[in-house]
């Protein structure tokens, strides 16, 4: 006996998972989807317009970023990566099963949208705990559907179901590609369910990130750039409670002790000014969480000093650059260490490290740093302030390529 | 002989030097604690004018870290807390600390139970102790309190059903002289109160001590005042004492006074309610986060602990007993659950 799912997009009632899989297997109206299919592009562009409406963007700024990401120009750039080449034709993979994280995070919309753009049929598991931004996304999708081509309704499905192994097993067995977000445990859990022999997983497990700031570069920068960087650090860190994979969990200063001391004091003063303006909500439970986490670092010997400037800003002196805590410490917690050169950080980096946000370095220095890492860790090196900007290359994957397959044609 | 004698000024004058000494004691014996004090800017020899200035530890630290001030070969007992997240606190006692905590618990509760062991009714089931593998914090709590009574009778049978015959037999034997009742708050309400009312049992000679919090009773609109009023009205029980304590400060029991006007601190302990924005002490009447203070912990640095409970000081030196009287208002939102009333019949 197989389980049932509740259809959230297109909104509907309960449906047996076998019926859902059968419906997704049927040829859509107007013929099979292609890479960059106009029916899908039209839908995504209309969806993006809804997200960019002031009423939505005001309540959920993260959805405005999503809206920008799905503008026609951006879509064109994404499609250019998978354009046909002589002797190489790109096609959709088929059916893609997305398992996003259970907490409220809208990152799954990006992976779904790119997969749809690649011409795939998609089933996205939406958490029954979804709320806020995720619900706003479902509302906007539902509204957009009214004027959309019938093929979109037929091929793009978002569903909710409880802990039901039968459903997960059926969707896994039917999928050509399975996309799993949300941590080591969910990845391991989902992998218990076999895929078809030709199918494979695209996984986004637990990651952590950090910031590097060149002390000399900081001191040489003009006031406006320093203020912008302080605001950027605020956005990178305080959105999503510093718990996103790309949120920086530590700040490394690169330079001599005196310059570092001066640059650090300057950044913290500017960050303080940003905080006094933004006044992020730090409730008592979060404040206690931060104490537990930072005091724990001191107990372990990883921290030599812990300082609280109110509940919203905690700084921690790490005993050494290798003592970077990759676990979540609560929002507004900045462990810091100093190194002489960027290259000194290379031994510290591990596979789990995802995003390095930077300020005060030249492009050559950053490229040299990436080469020193040699792919052992770190998938993105982006300016401070851009940590949470989603890109079509994520966790080291060129997503449009992952979502398509190649047929090569050699005429001889 | 009671341990509730010191007014607030005398209490603070006595506790401050003892707690400063204790802080140095733990600093010298626990490298982990010493590192933490150093990182927080509390060097040796720093002067403290008020209890509230001393460095406190968030109680959850004991769930993630081993913090003890005794060598491994002197560890006599490791106590663990209950919790719903799987994380448990581990509290290390040497032989002396283990003995002392029993003694102080006994001396504290003696204020309401008197010096003699009384016949004891337990609002629980003997089945708690049958399976050692699932021996829970609730079991440990019940076992710890059983020492204070004799002729133990359980209100629930081994299938966890109320056993009116057992209670009736107990009351026939002991009901005309003082007897002790112990139970977790929600179980006392759900089982003993309902049972006694239904069978018209006379509990007027009972002395009830209960603990565990009101969370499970909130949806029944039962708070402390209603609990006391209805028990008295429907069963005759008047001597009712809620108590508050935690494994991380074992042996320290904050006990409700005879007037029901709040929880009181034994002479070797105190509470400080802090503003969760500034962490400064708030005046009486202002709710905040509760810090518990006790000179008991010598084998682990648990003498100054910030709990995850919200509370309010209702008054100072103005109640049935001297010192602060306070009330626990509930847990911090989103903070992990604490308490020893674990998974029994959530849906009962």
Low-confidence stretches of chain B: 335-348
The quaternary organization reads as heterodimer
Domain count of chain A: 2
Widest sheet: strand ordering of chain A: 2-1-6-5-4-7-8
Q: How would you state the average pLDDT of chain A, rounded?
A: 93
In short:
By secondary structure, chain A is an alpha/beta fold. Helices cover 42% and strands 23% of the residues of chain A. Chain A has helices at 17-25, 38-51, 54-59, 61-69, 72-80, 107-117, 133-145, 150-155, 165-174, 183-190, 215-220, 223-238, 257-278, 284-300, 363-373, 399-402, and strands at 4-9, 11-16, 88-92, 95-99, 121-125, 156-160, 177-181, 200-204, 208-214, 248-254, 303-308, 314-318, 333-339, 353-359, 380-383, 393-394, 397-398, 404-408.
Question: How would you describe this structure to a colleague?
Answer:
The complex is a heterodimer of chains A (412) and B (348). Helix content of chain A is 42%, strand content 23%. By secondary structure, chain A is α/β, with parallel strands linked by helices. Chain A has 2 domains: 4-206 and 395-408, Aldehyde Dehydrogenase, Chain A, domain 1, CATH 3.40.605; 208-391, 3-Layer(aba) Sandwich (Aldehyde Dehydrogenase, Chain A, domain 2). Chain A has a 7-stranded mixed β-sheet, with helices on both faces. Chain A has a 7-stranded mixed β-sheet with strand order 11-12-13-10-9-14-15, sandwiched between helices. A two-stranded antiparallel ribbon of chain A has the order 3-18. In chain A, helix 2 (38-51) runs antiparallel to helix 4 (61-69). The mean pLDDT of chain A is 93. With 348 residues, chain B is an alpha/beta fold. Chain B folds into 2 domains: 8-74 and 262-331, Roll (Luciferase, domain 3); 104-244, Rossmann fold (3-Layer(aba) Sandwich). Chain B is built from 8 helices and 14 strands. In chain B, helix 7 links the parallel strand 6 (179-184) and strand 7 (206-211). In chain B, helix 1 (8-29) crosses helix 2 (31-39) and helix 7 packs parallel to helix 8 (224-235). Chain B starts with 7 loop residues before the first helix and ends in a 17-residue tail after the last strand. The relative contact order of chain B is 0.17. Residues 335-348 of chain B have low confidence and may be disordered.
